[in-house]
Amino acid sequence: MFKNLDPLLHSQVRLAIMTILLNVKSAEFSYLLENIETSKGNLSFQITKLKEAKYIQVRKSFRNNYPLTTLKITEIGINAYENYIDAMNDYFNKSQANG
Predict the structure, then answer these.
(1) pTM score over 0.85
(2) For residues 47 and 58, is the Cβ–Cβ distance under 8 A?
(3) Residues spanned by the domain of 37
(4) What are the tens digits of pLDDT across the range 67-98?
(5) Which of 50, 71, 74, 96 has its CA 20 to 30 A from that of 14?
């Protein structure tokens, strides 16, 4: 039996966001935009999805009168990410066992 994959993380952009946030204390929107091949609008949309699931925290503030969005992964997000990776590894292990 295969483990269920989290449909929220089974998206290239959302998985990239989570992978980056897992390895830093926090990241600014502009940093994510520079490191993920997507548009501003799509990045914003995917961030909203992760925020609604409580996988990330989003803090909006200002720096020198310019809007600043900072993101941080939550414990819920870390657990979801680790479960997703475990499930993917299960898929790979099963394919190697049958190959």
Answers:
(1) yes
(2) yes
(3) 12-98
(4) 999 999 999 999 999 999 999 999 888 877 66
(5) 96
